[in-house]
Design a protein that fits this description.
250 residues, alpha/beta, 5-stranded mixed β-sheet, 7 helices, elongated
Amino acid sequence: MSSSRLVGVGVGPGDPELVTVKGVNALRTADVVVVPVMAASDGRDGGERGRAEATVLHYVPEEKVVRVVFALNERSDRERREAAWDAAGTRVAQLLGQSGVVAFATIGDPNVYSTFTYLAQTIGELVPGVVVETVPGITAMQDLAARSGAVLTEGTEPLTLVPVTAGAAVLKEALNGPGTVVAYKFGRQAAEVVEALRETGRLDGAVWGSALGLESEFIRPAADLDGAPLPYLSTLIAPARRDGGRGGKL
């Protein structure tokens, strides 16, 4: 049985100041910190420094960081994606065999649409007895709400989080419902998102953002969207309809 430990650490949406104290401690006490990188066309390390890696390097030395290729940008070829996942899992399993504690840094939170979920499942099969833990991280919707002044929830309002990669119909269904709707991963479908907001009467007050906390940060009213493609990791907040005054939904 293994005595090793795999820790998924949420490092937030990009601003290194938004990593929690517990997250920093987890990164610093781990023997190795794994960061996911996108594959080039040949399946090898594309060389690009991702958001998670850039954040991690504010807190741990580069020699402690191990870049592992994941199929982050492979969505059409299932066979290739599965092969990449298996290779990534095997590499992390090797690191666990060499080190007591391996931290895996993921943007946002490790339990919210995270690469870590799939890695943990794979490692559970490859390394029997491994202990898997997570350290929560600040999400893009929280950061966008703070930076834009959008209120996510009040009183009894529900909050719905939708990955637009699931289709515009799923987003429209959520927008037709009550409460605030947050959309993730909608950059390539920006035109469909704008149409859905208009059709459901949710365009006014909605806000979108990308590259939060970075030099290339953009935060704009959703009404400014012209349908042109946006960065993949764009976030949208369409606040609930609120017409009951202060505390109207308590």
